[in-house]
């Protein structure tokens, strides 16, 4: 990595221009015009004060010359964005000879301090200080002594340079904070996308396992028919019905897996059964055995009537919500609510009150809820999570349940 790239964050390209900058610059904005007009007026006002002071002891011809040169110096400030170093160098020499150009010189020095690297600031500042000292002897002011004139000139020059460097440092700080915020936002989006991808892969693996399980059952019954072609018609009809139902369910599962990728090289058997809504009670019992207080409130008469894919999604949502409650709200009573009927959809809600006292901080990635939202969206439903109205935390999901 080169030196320029390594220090880019210190001197952003739009704050500190490279050598020879100016060609192809963007057009001035309204803010740029406002700043340029303000600096022009300040430099002109400073020049008028200098002309008024010199008119007390200089001749009319010299005063007229000061006015003309001062006006040209102020007009040269309109070129400071295109060639700041050149304008500042010319005005530093001019300011040493013509006091009316001192205001324009300070403005040009300020622009160099804001926009240029330190090596340019250093020699322009040295030239300006030399001009501030030289103008005391070239155009002495009878009303002020040499020491006071040199002190005032040097102080004003150093203040202009310091102010410009302070403005540049502030701009660099703001730019660094903006880049850091954008980088953090990009990383958060990347983590969210990764969580969604992992959720899709998990769903694909589950669907793969379920599909393999159904096809295995289909193969077993088909093999039985092949092995016993002389079986009673009732037994053959029953086996054919099982084959038909298994094939129909396998097709439904296959439709759900379309568009969802399976992680490459993943190991795992394809014949292990997957959790459904009928096994939600076992999950609640397992949580109770682990020391949690869980209350299951369900209005479903037959959990087995819920589609298998919907039941698996509900199971995973309840599992993740119970895990989060165990980590972040230990000792509270967790309520799992199940409501719904065919045609209206299925609603599952897991909520817990706020824990009493101080809870030890348990680090978490925050990606589990993102994965659940992705899982619910893939199932055609939606998931909401956040602080409950009465305090605590609640996870609510709605999933379609065909009639």
Automatic annotation (TrEMBL):
Signal transduction histidine kinase subgroup 3 dimerisation and phosphoacceptor domain location: 200-265
EC number(s) on file: 2.7.13.3
Transmembrane segments: 35-55, 61-79, 86-109, 121-138, 145-166
Catalytic activity entry: ATP + protein L-histidine = ADP + protein N-phospho-L-histidine
Top EC class for this record: transferase
InterPro entries the record matches: DUF7134, HATPase_C_sf, HATPase_dom, Sensor_HK_TwoCompSys, Sig_transdc_His_kin_sub3_dim/P
Keyword set, alphabetical order: ATP-binding, Coiled coil, Kinase, Membrane, Nucleotide-binding, Phosphoprotein, Transferase, Transmembrane, Transmembrane helix, Two-component regulatory system
Coiled-coil regions, chain positions: 167-205
Gene Ontology molecular function terms on file: ATP binding; phosphorelay sensor kinase activity; protein dimerization activity
Histidine kinase/HSP90-like ATPase domain span: 312-401
SUPFAM superfamilies reported in the protein's UniProt record: ATPase domain of HSP90 chaperone/DNA topoisomerase II/histidine kinase
Residue span, DUF7134 domain: 32-171
GO cellular component: membrane
Name of the protein this chain belongs to: histidine kinase
Lineage of origin: Bacteria, Bacillati, Actinomycetota, Actinomycetes, Kitasatosporales
């Amino acid at each position: 990595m080169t030196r320029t790239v390594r220090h880019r964050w210190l001197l952003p390209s739009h704050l500190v221009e490279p050598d020879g900058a100016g060609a192809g610059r963007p057009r001035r904005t309204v803010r740029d015009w406002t700043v340029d007009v303000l600096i022009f007026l300040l430099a002109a006002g400073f020049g008028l004060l200098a002309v008024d002071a010199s008119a007390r002891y200089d001749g009319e011809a010299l005063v007229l010359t000061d006015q003309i040169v001062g006006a040209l110096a102020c007009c040269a400030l309109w070129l400071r964005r295109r060639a700041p170093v050149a304008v500042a160098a010319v005005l530093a020499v001019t300011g040493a000879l013509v006091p009316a150009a001192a205001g324009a010189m300070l403005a040009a020095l300020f622009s160099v301090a804001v926009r240029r690297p330190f090596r340019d600031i250093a020699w322009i500042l040295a030239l300006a200080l030399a001009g501030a000292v030289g103008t005391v002897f070239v155009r002495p002011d009878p009303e002020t002594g040499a020491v006071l004139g040199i002190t005032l000139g040097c102080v004003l020059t150093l203040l202009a340079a310091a102010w410009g460097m302070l403005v540049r440092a502030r701009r660099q700080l703001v730019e660094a904070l903006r880049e850091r915020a954008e980088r953090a936002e990009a990383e958060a989006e990347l983590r969210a996308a990764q969580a969604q991808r992992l959720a899709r892969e998990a769903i694909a693996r589950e669907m793969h396992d379920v599909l393999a399980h159904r096809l295995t059952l289909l193969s077993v019954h088909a093999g039985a028919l092949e092995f016993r072609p002389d079986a009673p018609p009732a037994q053959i009809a029953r086996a054919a019905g099982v084959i038909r139902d298994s094939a129909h369910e396998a097709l439904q599962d296959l439709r759900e897996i379309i568009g969802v990728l399976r992680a490459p090289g993943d190991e795992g058997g394809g014949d292990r059964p997957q959790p459904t809504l009928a096994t939600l009670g076992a999950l609640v019992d397992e949580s109770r055995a682990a020391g949690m207080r869980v209350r299951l409130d369900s209005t479903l008469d037959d959990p087995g009537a819920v589609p298998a894919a919907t039941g698996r999604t509900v199971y995973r949502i309840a599992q993740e919500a119970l895990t989060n409650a165990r980590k972040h709200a230990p000792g509270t009573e967790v309520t799992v609510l199940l409501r719904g009927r065919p045609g209206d959809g299925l609603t599952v809600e897991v909520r817990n009150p706020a824990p009493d006292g101080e809870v030890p901080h348990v680090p978490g990635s925050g990606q589990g809820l993102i994965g659940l939202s992705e899982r619910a969206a893939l199932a055609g439903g939606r998931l909401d999570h956040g602080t409950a109205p009465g305090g605590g935390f609640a996870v609510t999901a709605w999933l379609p349940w065909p009639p």
